[in-house]
Amino acid sequence: MNWQQVxxxxxxxxxxxxxxxxxxxxxxxxxxxxxxxxxILTTELTAKQVTKQQKKVYEIAVKSGYxxxxxxxxxAADKYLKVTSMETKDLDKVSVFVExxxxxxxxxxxxxxxxxxxxxxxxxxxxRFAFDKVRDVIGKLKKELVQKRLKIKGLDTELIIxxxxxxxxxxxxxxxxxxxxxxxxxxxxxxxVVGCSFIAQEIAAGEKERGTLETLLCSPLSQLELVCxxxxxxxxxxxxxxxxxxxxxxLTISHMSSxxxxxxxxxxxANFSLPMTAMxxxxxxxxxxxxxxxxxxxxxxxxxxxxxxxxxxxxPITLVMxxxxxxxxxxxxxxxGITRFIPFINFCLLFQDLLIGESNLLDFLAxxxxxxxxxxxxxxxxxxxxxSENVLFNHEGRSTLTFNRKSLKTKESFEAxxxxxxxxxxxxxxxxxxxxxxxxxxxxxxxxxQWSIFFLLSLGLLAFFKVKVKxxxxxxxxxxxxxxxCFLLAPFCFSGVMLFQLFLQYFGYHGADFGLVDLxxxxxxxxxxxxxxxIISLTPAICEEVLFRGLLLSGLRKxxxxxxxxWLQALMFGVxxxxxxxxxxxxxxxxxxxxxxxxxxSLICTILMHAIFNGISCLVWAYDVQDKLILDxxxxxxxxxxxxxxxxxxxKPKDEKIA
Amino acid sequence: xxxxxxxxxxxxxRKSNEIEAVKDLNLSIEAGQIxxxxxxxxxxxxxxxxxxxxxxxxxxxxxxxxxxxxxxxSLEVRRSIGFLSGSxxxxxxxxxxxxxVWFAKLNGMGKQDIKTRVDELVVxxxxxxFIDRKCEKLSTGQKQKVNIARTIIHNxxxxxxxxxxxGLDVVAKRSIIDFIKHMxxxxxxxxxxxxxxxxxxxxxxxxxxxxxxxxxxxxQIDDVLQxxxxxxxGELFNRYxxxxxxxxx
Lengths: 659, 249
Hints:
The complex is a heterodimer of chains A (659) and B (249). Chain A has 659 residues and is mainly α. Chain A has helices at 3-19, 21-55, 70-77, 104-109, 125-152, 172-210, 213-217, 223-259, 279-303, 307-328, 345-356, 361-387, 389-393, 416-438, 442-464, 469-472, 480-505, 516-556, 562-575, 583-600, 603-622, 626-629, 634-645; strands at 58-63, 81-86, 96-100, 116-119. Chain A folds into three domains: 3-40 and 172-392, no CATH class; 56-160, D-Maltodextrin-Binding Protein, domain 2 (3-Layer(aba) Sandwich), CATH 3.40.190; 412-650, no CATH class. A four-stranded mixed beta sheet of chain A has the order 2-1-3-4, covered by helices on one side. In chain A, α3 (70-77) links the parallel β1 and β2 (81-86). The longest helix of chain A has 41 residues, at 516-556. Chain A is globular, with a radius of gyration of 33 Å. Chain B has 249 residues and is α/β, with parallel strands linked by helices. Chain B is 39% helix and 26% strand. Classes of the chains: A mainly alpha (659), B alpha/beta (249).
């Protein structure tokens, strides 16, 4: 690679960006001006409003007949309360209504507990502020009455105060940093995405739209140099945007802190300052994350034909990016185990730890290495995109899904893009139908959603779009030998997946039995063991195989290599189980079943394996014998599983060719 | 010299059919000659030119520029190619000079060479008035002049011009045509694609006619017309249009 060429492209892209004054200002400086504006203005306005509300005189009422009571007099004595008498509660006329209950006066006089009710509206600001005032007055009255009673009885006030607690915050600075840690990384990530997407749209989709890409492609720039030049530009702009935002937010919060005079009060960021020692580490992490976000943004923008289309692609990316931000701010989520290796989540958590001074080198390295690995994968995909004529010149090969059935010709399978669209639709349907049905009947929801969505809808789509069922679903005779091998292979694959999940437990990923024991218990109670076996084992084996290893895989195979199909199938199958904890196991299973169909070219083999696999799961979870069967014999199982899984190499296609 | 041998390109269309955009294209152009690549819309001209500019790879076949395999040595060969199409845009926020200089640097030219060459092109293409103006502020004709300058800044031996005069007014068109003639006199191989038959007659030494991806005529204009039994190029194209119409109906 010629770095001089990369630098030339990089310099040109940056120059163009800087000269686009409108985008430059909107992206880099508007947020910088907005933070102080928004935060200071809203804080000051809120404070002003609160003071105004507190100084306002509120009209309240006490039930008629208590005008001479001490309660009434005390309330009337408060300069912010205007007290009237009212027969029955009417909160449209007054902000608060106070109603002494039965025997109020008698109970007070006889040293008993007198009760009263206070009515107010939570959704009405005036009512809430008036209630606060009333509560203060009643609190003071209560205290006076206690002292009076104790005095009459000749007792000391200290009698009712056995403990006096002095609470002092010893880490006020850390507290404000802890709060800032919940907000800052998320905002920075989002700003990073916004910054990267702006420039990525311009230099990827914009280049296509303006017709300048072709000139670059026939210049002496290699694909790698082209990608690197553009990629580094996106990284630079995205990182600059994030760092300007970080700086502005930190300065604004510090300014607020200085305004509060460091006395705390209602300002949660009083005493806040960025820990300067952590700043270099924060910046290194930010650069690494900027590389990943830039890769993702450039990848999405490169797929688009116009800047407008690229903007549409960025919306889901921004939404998806907000998920790790939300997850990392959930209570109890810390940088440990598997969270160390999930991009963006690990960044947010490390950022939080760095702010409160609780980070360590291992966490830092885990974040750097895992984000780095994901970045390399994204860049590899990016280079692949820039090598694809279909993507660069928008040649055909896009979705063939059209509802004009007459224009369609009979074909062997869907296109890869069709498969991805169908998968997305099925996923949505599955989520909503299955979720709605689950509230009615768990077993029914599995049966109906699997047969109606995965099976019947798949067949319906194949028929409507004139796709040959036999070839698309790989309905070939597998031969007795392949069936026998699959029969033997399935238990070993099951144990292999179990061992994999147990291995992941060392990283804090507890996916082995999440929810399955409870699910089995409910199903066996309702349908008996055989019924459950049919629901859990046979139904998904047929329906999921028809969709995943049939319709979707045959489409994917048209554009992707076998290796890429394995990854995609693993991802799709994992995602389709709608559980973060079951993802790893189901993804591995998806990959194994894909491998089986590549070797046998018959869906019947994968249906058989899937059914046996699910059947064994049924047995293990129904009787909850995971500990006895697997954990107690883990080494024996491990020794048997490895050669057992090697049985897969005995699988060979009988004679037909895959579509 | 450009020699094209059995060049073929296949795309997959929306209905999963294989579309042979270019079928076994064979051409040969000597230095100092202009070959007019002609054909109806969708005949495969742009695909052929994209293959010859190494922007896309052929499905099969080979092309040699001065005996160098163009697709096996695409990075090296690109320094000898200048490619310009009617739809090519410019970087709107760079000035005309910055654009030309940038492409010169990309082609590995030295500072002094760039300065000399830019000055030469500014005079040749009459660009002194707008050379330091941003591209977004240029007229269509001025833009096309900048495009031509950036196409030939590195002195390419092969010039590929795809509808280079489309959308230009009479004056701008004349200036571009004169410039192409100048390029021819500088002994370059020029592949010229257009829908304007008057330009073909004025510029081209020979023509190659593509119809539905297939080379249906190649040689001197008169020879091609004679072989197709047509009196002029307009008649030739009407005949192809009718054939396509019949095939579609």
